[in-house]
Amino acid sequence: MKLNAFFKELEKKMVNAIKNDFKEMLHFIGDERIYAVCFVTDSEARTTFFVANTYEYIEKRDQEYIEKGWESAYDELKWDPSDWGYGNSHFQSDASMSVASYLSEKRDDIEEEIFDGFEEKLHTTMISVLDNLHNEKVFCQNKDDITVFISMSDDERTEEVENYSARSLNSEKVYNEFLKRFDNIL
How far is CA 11 from CA 21, 75, 92, 139, in A? Predict the structure, then answer.
């Protein structure tokens, strides 16, 4: 299968998975206020997972830190998707498993000399998926109510990838606020 056809099919699978998983997440989120959603991959471009977080969840996690006698970690926790409360990894849905299998199988066939192009195409596909869903108002009615971005779970390029995607996926106002996310972290 040619890479363009692969990514076209992957995009369809990702859209379906995120729509289904987000709908299920909303049952757990209830009345909590979502401030961000993120689609994450790893530095090997083998896996993806979708996460959302709420103000209430981040406040609860920060309070747990404080109760342990640690400093408030609100700002660090707020923008670290690995610490977020709601993710599709908890559901193991058929759609999410299909995305994982499809991506992993293709990644096994990718030779290292074309990996950079494969990874770049994966990132642009992930951005396209979130952009389409955000424009369809799947995550919220007013696009300025939440921040949408992609991330990498284990890579030194994470901040660069997050900033690039946030610029593509959000209004200038939301993007400029996102750029300040590390300003209060020592």
Answer: 15, 32, 19, 18
